[in-house]
Predict the 3D structure of the following.
Amino acid sequence: MSLEIRDLHVDVMTESGPKEILKGVDLTINPGEVHAIMGPNGSGKSTLAYALMGHPKYTITSGSVVLDGVDLTRLAVDERARAGLFLAMQYPVEVPGVSVANFLRTAKTALSGEAPKVRTWVKEVNAALAHMDLDPSFSARSVNEGFSGGEKKRSDIAQLGLLGPKYAVLDETDSGLDIDALRVVADGVNRYLADGTHGVLLITHYSRVLQYIKPTVVHVYMDGRIVASGGPELADRLEAEGYEQFEARADA
Ligand code: ADP
Ligand code: MG
């Protein structure tokens, strides 16, 4: 059981043709583990997140992604979700006309193969929203439409709690949150992790979130690959000294 990323190379399609962004990412996440990926702007963190989930703009040119023995590399987005992968995007997409309640119900049905029982489901949804400090009236609103930055992130984590995927990729879910919202989001992620059966890939460029969500491993990520890995102390070192010290290795 693990999410295993092996020598992943990914191209993004640009106007002037394909451009390699990921240059050999290796990473194994076991159940119960939190792997933090810390890297500067433009280092390819979101590209990694999108490539894992199967965004059509990003092409895996070599390497593999295997989730609990299932090779995701050639699967469509919905198949990857059914296999147990979840992505909270850095910039959540607004879906006008689709209510949060409908969206969650459709997602749950697609993932489990049967519609959730109406009575218990509504309670579950309201409890998940309440956990994230969101009013029950959020159910009736269009997905992410007019949500503040913090509300988008909090509803993503409510979704994570309800759907309970095996592995979650959280792309800068901490960015733009004030300290109270950061705590609420971190509590939600820790609740998801509590039973030890789930793994998290936590993408961030600030170490602050790691005070609330304890990483098993911290990876320094530059120019499309991991250049150093270590314990939580690596995040403190980054905070104190910056990314420059790793630059030479990324260029090598
Ligand atoms: P990060 O999330 O670490 O800030 P990204 O993965 O968003 O980095 O971007 C990595 C690099 O890939 C950047 O130089 C960015 O401009 C480029 N890139 C990503 N997506 C696209 C795209 N759709 N078209 C062109 N360039 C892209
Ligand atoms: Mg990004």
Observations:
- Helices lie at 45-53, 77-83, 100-112, 118-131, 149-163, 179-193, 233-241, 244-251.
- Residues 12, 14, 21, 39, 41-47, 57 surround adenosine-5'-diphosphate (ligand 1) (CB under 6 Å).
- The longest strand covers residues 17-29.
